[in-house]
Design a protein that fits this description.
It is a single chain. By secondary structure, this protein is of the alpha/beta class. It has two domains: 56-228, no CATH class; 241-416, no CATH class. The protein contains ten helices and eight strands. It has a three-stranded antiparallel beta sheet. A three-stranded mixed beta sheet has the order 5-6-8. Strands 1-2 form a two-stranded parallel sheet. Helix 4 packs antiparallel against helix 6. The chain is extended, with a radius of gyration of 36 Å. 20% of the residues are buried.
């Protein structure tokens, strides 16, 4: 029998046969499948924590919020922001830093990062404080202090306005500061855990709301005390006002107050209040009035303050009062409705063009009063009327309204003709 020839063994240095194209394809497919399975398993174990690096993750730490806020001093500042402009700026500074510090404590940031929070906010505070001031003063009824005291709402309204303004900018401020000092993904901060607030939510619910509650409690006591001691004796004072526009209006308010038992209305009280309003707009000359003569340019300049609401008389009348058998009508029900009507009259007046009309009328009055006197001095003299903005956050250079010069020019042209 002939022996079968043995298969030659591979020498240690011999080359191995290459993989075919089909084998290489199957190896690559198996490798890709393994990668997909690993990624899927990782996502299942880590929830939504996929491509977020570790430094993006926020895990809240327990921290108590203890604001250093002098409520009485804060309410005095809010009651007269123009007079206490510098104090208002400091109040907003401390107010916002209290919010940011609490969020930083809850996020468990290091002392160095907390220091950066203050440093970054210091850069943004000047324009943020101006935003707060402009928004606050635009919404505040500074010319109706008398009515607000009478209706127990002076300090309470100021706190409500501050809360509205702060709520508008708190999220913007929180995201701006912390996204500047932390490495974020597209400006977003990712919070670790379930059913947790964002840093903005922490600032609103754990810091802003408690501070507003404290201010609201003190404001209620302050308003009650001021109302009880309001106008204990007759007051006489000197005024120097130039009223140029008057608005008379009438409004009504119908309100139903229901008493429910197990979700069903068992008693209804209907209240219908109407009121007429007499609102006067003009210039408080005690605040600012200046008369200058420039012989080089032959110009006489009269500078008045910006127009404002000088007086606002509201005469409410109860048109209908149908009291239900379970409803006890209290005086506070009437006061709130009276004050609501007064605020609506004022809002409509401010949103109209009455301030521009008041300026145009002031130009005509100044021309009527001072024009003959100036012409008697020198026929070459011309009269100009300017309006000074007494808002301390504004520049003092914005004197002129274009229509004032146009009104003067048109009147001078008519006289020449």
């Amino acid at each position: 029998m002939s022996a079968r020839p043995k298969t030659p063994t591979s020498a240690p240095g011999a080359k191995r046969p290459r993989l075919s194209s089909r084998q290489l394809f199957f190896y690559i497919a198996a490798l890709l499948l393994a990668v997909v399975l690993l990624v899927t398993l990782f996502q299942k174990n880590k929830g939504t924590y996929t491509r977020i690096p570790k430094e993006y993750q926020i895990k809240y730490m327990p921290a108590d919020f203890k604001p250093q806020l002098d409520t009485e001093n804060a309410l005095s500042i809010l009651s007269n922001p123009y007079r206490y402009n510098r104090e208002f700026n400091d109040l907003i500074y401390q107010f916002n830093l209290s919010l940011l510090d609490h969020v930083a404590n809850r996020m468990g940031l290091s002392d160095s990062l907390k220091l950066q929070v203050h440093q970054v906010y210091d850069k943004h505070h000047p324009y943020i404080s101006r935003l707060y001031f402009n928004e606050f003063t635009a919404m505040q009824d500074t010319t109706s202090e008398l009515y607000q005291k009478w209706y127990n709402s002076e300090s309470t309204d100021a706190v409500a306005i501050l809360k509205e303004v702060s709520s508008k900018y708190t999220c913007f401020l929180t995201n701006l500061i912390f996204s500047s000092i932390l490495e974020t993904d597209e400006g977003k901060l990712f919070v670790y855990g379930r059913n947790v607030d964002s840093p903005c939510g922490v600032a609103l619910t754990e810091a802003l709301q408690p501070m507003m509650d404290r201010l609201q409690e003190t404001a209620a006591i302050r308003d009650f005390t001021a109302s009880k001691g309001f106008l204990e004796k007759r007051v006489e004072r000197v005024t120097a006002e130039l009223a140029t526009m008057e608005i008379r209006d009438k409004k009504g308010l119908n309100k139903q107050m229901q008493t429910k038992l197990w979700g069903f209305s068992v008693s209804t009280t209907e209240l219908e209040v109407i009121a007429i309003s007499v609102l006067k707009v003009g210039f408080d000359l005690l605040k600012y009035f200046q008369l200058n003569l420039d012989p080089r340019t032959n110009v006489v300049t009269v500078t008045l303050p910006e127009p404002e609401i000088l007086s606002h008389e509201v005469y409410p009348k109860i048109e209908k009062l149908d009291i239900g058998w379970l409803r006890e009508v209290k005086s506070v029900d009437f006061n709130k409705n009276f004050n609501l009507l007064r605020k609506e009259f004022r809002r409509e007046a401010l949103e109209s063009d009455v301030m521009d009309k008041s300026k145009a009328q002031a130009v005509e009055i100044m021309q009527l009063m001072l024009g003959p006197l100036i012409n008697s001095m020198n026929r070459q003299y011309k009269l100009e009327v300017k309006f000074k903005n007494l808002n301390p956050t504004q520049s003092d250079e914005e004197y002129f309204d274009s229509f004032s010069r146009e009104a003067l020019n048109s009147q001078q042209n008519s006289e020449n003709d």
